[in-house]
Amino acid sequence: MVETHDTRLKRLTMRSMRRGIKEMDLILMRYAEARLSVMDAAALDDYEALLEENDHDLYQWVSGQVPAPERFAPLVEDIRGVVGA
Q: Which domains does the chain have, with CATH numbers?
């Protein structure tokens, strides 16, 4: 069965707020609320791939402690811009 766009948005939103590290829950939930509904399928694919990454790595990327890998750098910059990290 093919996942509908609305179902995918709901699933990614839920994954954004149930991370494991509270800081990442808050950051990614704010980002999901602000951006997911306007993302195209390719952007959602990138975001979903980012959600597969380790929370500790994500936090270091978003907080600027460690540079994000090239693949995720534009997305991480967008997250930082939205949440003010």
A: 5-83 (1.10.150.250)
